[in-house]
Amino acid sequence: MTLDIDHDNDHDNHSFLYTHAMACDTTPKLAVLVDAENAQYSIIGLLLAEIAKYGTAHVKRAFGDWTDHRLDGWSNELLNQSIQPIQQTAYTHGKNTTDSAMVINAMDLLYSNCVDGFCLVSSDSDFTPLATRVRESGLMVFGFGEHKTPKAFVAACDKFIYTEDLVCPSGLVPHSDRAEVPQSHNSVQQAKEDGHPAIRQQNTTENSLNNSGWARLSDVGEHLTTQHPEFNISTHGYSKLSKLFSDSPNFDIEHRLSQADKPPELYVRKRKTSPRSAQI
Questions:
Q1: Which residue, 1, 34, 87, 156, could crosslink 62 as a Cys pair with Cβ 3.0–4.6 Å?
Q2: Range with lowest mean pLDDT among 11-15, 31-35, 172-176, 271-275
Q3: C-alpha distances in Å from residue 163, one per residue of 51, 169, 218
Q4: How many alpha carbons lie under 13 Å from residue 200 in its C-beta half-sphere?
Q5: Number of neighbours of residue 101 by Cβ within 10 angstroms
C-alpha cells in the first residue's frame, strides 16, 4: 500500500488513513463514542468535521451521568449534532463510570459488523485495551483527546488527533514540555522547518533505492503514520507531506519518473553536505 503524495495531486495525511480504512469502494462507516466526562462539548462540531475526512459517522453516542450538572453544557451539542446520549449512573461517588458502558457498547458494535472503524473521544488511558482489541479485529481506530492523553492510548490508535489542534490547526499547540507557542515569524518558520520529531529522526534509508539512502516519500509517510499515530502535518501549517519535506532544510528531494505514462514519484533522504538535488 502506498501514499499518493508524490505528484501534483498528492493527498494530505488523512487520505492515507481513509485508504487504509477502506476494504471496498464504499465510504467507511465509523462509530463515534464520546466519553463526555473526559471530553469538551465546545469542540464537538470541529471534531465531527475532522471525522468526516475519514468516513461517515454512522453511530454517534456520548456516555456520561447526565444527571450530573457538570455535564449540562452538553445538552445543546447533543441535540445540534444528533448525538445519542447514553446514561451511565455513577454508582460510586467520584469514580468515572462511563468507561465500562462505553467499552460494552464498542464491543457490541464490533461484533455486529456494522461499522468499519471507531472514533474514541477521551483523554483517558483506560481505553487503551479497547483500542488494541478493535485493531486486532482489523478495524481502524481514530483517537481524539487532549495533549495530556497518556502515550499508551495514543500509540494504541491508528491515528490520534489532539483536540487542541482542531481549534488551532495552523499553529503550534504547546505540549506539556513546551512553555509557549512561538510568536515571531522566524520562530514559527523554524518550527515548521524542524517539523515533528518523527520527521527529524526518520530513518529514510529504510526501503531505500540501491542502498543510496533515498526512500519513496509514500513509504516514509506510511511509516510516520504507523509509528507515530499523533503525527499531524496541519499542526505545522501544512496540508501536504510533500510540501513539509520540501520546505525542510534537513532533507533532499528528487522527482523520479518510473513510467512514462505516470506522474513522477517523490524520493527523499536526509540532507548531507550537498545542495538539494534538482528534479530529474
A1: 34
A2: 172-176
A3: 12, 10, 26
A4: 8
A5: 19
Question: Is residue 60 within 8 Å of residue 24, measured between CB atoms?
Answer: no
**In this structure, are residues 171 and 181 in contact, taking their beta carbons and an 8 Å threshold?**
yes
Put residue 207 in one of left, alpha, beta given phi > 0 → left and psi -120 to 50 → alpha: left
Distance of CA 16 to the CA centre of its chain: 10
Cβ neighbours of 130 (radius 10 Å): 22
Question: Contact, 217 vs 6, CB < 8 A?
Answer: yes
**Sheet-wide strand order for 84-87:** 84-87, 56-64, 29-35, 117-121, 140-145, 159-162
Residues 143 and 155: beta-carbon distance below 8 Å: no
pLDDT in tens, 218-251: 777 766 666 666 666 666 667 677 777 777 777 7
What's this model's pTM, rounded to 2 decimal places?
Answer: 0.60
How many other C-beta atoms are found inside a 10 Å radius of the C-beta of residue 95?
A: 8
Q: Is domain 185-270 given the CATH code 3.20.20.140 in the classification? A: no
pLDDT tens digits along 67-93: 989 999 999 999 999 999 999 887 766
Nine-digit cell at 70? 457538570
Question: Could you tell me how far CA 167 lies from the centroid of its own chain?
Answer: 15
Residue whose cell numbers read 528534479: 279
233 class by beta-carbon count within 10 Å (0-12 exposed, 13-18 middle, 19+ buried): buried
What value does the mean pLDDT take over residues 168-191?
39
> What does the domain layout of the chain look like in residue ranges?
13-167, 185-270
For the domain made up of 13-167, the CATH class stated in words is alpha beta
C-alpha cell at 82: 444528533
SS3 121: strand
Nearest to residue 39, comparing CAs of 73, 69, 68? 73
